[in-house]
Amino acid sequence: MRNYTIITLLILGLLAHTLNAQDKKLAQTGMKFLSVSTDARTSGFSEAVTAVDLASASAIFYNPATLASIKEFTSFSVGNVSWIADINYIHSAIAFAPFDGDYGVFGISFLSVDYGEFMGTVVANNEKGYLDVGTFSPKSYSFGIGYAKALSTKFSVGGNIKYVKQNLGSSVVDVDQNGNFVNEDNSLGAIAFDFGILYRTGFKSLNFGMSVRNFSAELKYKKETFQLPLMFKIGLSIDAMDLFNVDKNTHSLVVAVDASHPRDYSEQIYLGAEYTFINMFSVRAGFVSPADEHNFSAGFGVKRNISGMNLGLDYAFQPYGVFNNVHRFTLSFSF
User: Fold this and answer.
1) Which domain holds residue 229?
2) CATH of residue 257
3) What is the pLDDT of residues 97-111, one digit of tens each?
4) Which of 34, 116, 89 lies closest to 327 in space, CA to CA?
5) 14: which residues sit within 8 A by CB, 6+ positions away?
6) How far apart are CA 231 and CA 29, in angstroms?
7) Residue 3 pLDDT more than 80?
8) Domain count, the chain
9) pLDDT of residue 292
10) pLDDT tens, 141-152?
11) Which H/E stretch holds residue 272?
């Protein structure tokens, strides 16, 4: 156990040092769709979940080590994000914990982004100054396979390998001898990795978590190089009802704080809370600082056990300043 802990901390410490040693390139990373929070429950308290036992397949998108807290054989989640500028996200994740998780928990994730339809044009010597060359529809994808293992009752580790791709459609780059447009495909794919740990301190339900997301080699698109939006996060969480003589099956109040060190913008603090009544109804709220357009978020959720199956529906609301309000819905079940 000690050896596992030391090795894991050394690996994550090395990754964090690598990130910290790099010069920040403000707003110069690519495939930014990987930075958007998708799960409604998590987004309801501002993504402050690095140290939270989510016990859900959607944990693979945040700290894969927390997948190890899943006890059911199968956990599944699917949802939608109505993002700014009419951008639409669809996400899903499924996790399996065979033999009660004795051999770890395996997860699969999928994310798809639809940016809508755009008109393509080229410069032309006419009254308009351009010619229409048809429409194009940019899209992005991510497909991942993850694994988490509880090495002891206190310590869990997890990782996720994913293939990410962004397709910006085709563009006109030339005109052939017959006057036909010559098109060029604008797409790029890459392999990225996520890592995480979760440590239960033994004091009440106080947890400590750490994660590194979107770790990959530098990419080159056409002539320019760029990097994925690498993110290093640490966090603490606790059920505040542990500090009082309260039945946690009736009242639960998870409070959490995360600190992030992203590659391409300033450090942020995430604060979040989730109150749950009789293990059925939940309300959430969170705050991020500093942030220009999206400091506050809130949400609620309902879950029921029906014929041995746990069903859940979550919603999150996030005002986004000068942009549209962001709405997230996630449906989950486990058995």
Assistant:
1) 2-334
2) 2.40.160.60
3) 999 889 999 999 999
4) 89
5) none
6) 11
7) no
8) 1
9) 85
10) 999 999 999 999
11) strand 268-277
